Amino acid sequence: MLLALSSLLAGQNPPQNPAPAKPAEDYSGMYSFQREGEFVQLTVEDAGRVTGFVSRFGDSESDRGAFLDQFFKTGKLDGTKLTFTTDTVHGVWYEFKGTVERGEGKTPANEGYYVMKGTLTENRTDADKKVTSKSREIVFKSFPHEG
C-alpha cells in the first residue's frame, strides 16, 4: 500500500506558480527632465504599472527656485509605450505619452542607456481656473547607474 501511494505521489507535479512575465528591459531609474538639476524617477512595477515622480524647480511667483515633487497620479507601460500623468502642484501638472527604449549609451553606467521619447504636455490652471496647455516633443535620457 505504501509503495502504491508513493508511486502515485511521485507522478504528481507540485503546483507551478509561474513568475509574472518581466519585460526584457527594466526601464526603472532616473531620467533627465526639462532643465539641469530636474529629473523624472520612473519605477516599473508588476503588470505594466508605473509609479514615480517629477522633481522640478518651481517657476511661479510663490515657488520660484524651490524644488517641487509631483508624483504620478497614473502611469502605464505597455511593451515600450509609456504614459503618465502627474498630480497637480501649484496649479501645474504634466502628461507624457510616448515610448521608453534603448538609447545611445553603451551600458547602464552611461547616460542615455535608456531614453523616454514622446510628447510632454504642461497644463496650468490660472487664478480664474482657466487651463492652458503647452505640448512639445522631448527626449529624456536615463542617468548613469551602476548595475
Describe this structure in words.
With 147 residues, this protein is mostly beta strands. It contains 1 helix and 8 strands. Strands 1-2-3-4-5-6-7-8 form an 8-stranded antiparallel sheet, with no helix packed on it. The model is unreliable at 2-6 and 14-23 (pLDDT under 50). The chain is globular and about 45 Å long.
DSSP, total strands: 8
Detail the poorly predicted runs.
2-6, 14-23
Main beta sheet? 8 strands, antiparallel
Beta-strand content estimate: over 45%
Order of strands, widest sheet: 1-2-3-4-5-6-7-8
- Helix proportion: under 10%
Order of secondary-structure elements: HEEEEEEEE
Molecular shape: globular
Tell me the Rg in angstroms. 22 Å
Q: What is the averaged pLDDT score?
A: 86
Structural class: mainly beta
End-to-end span in angstroms?
55 Å
| Tally of alpha and pi helices | 1
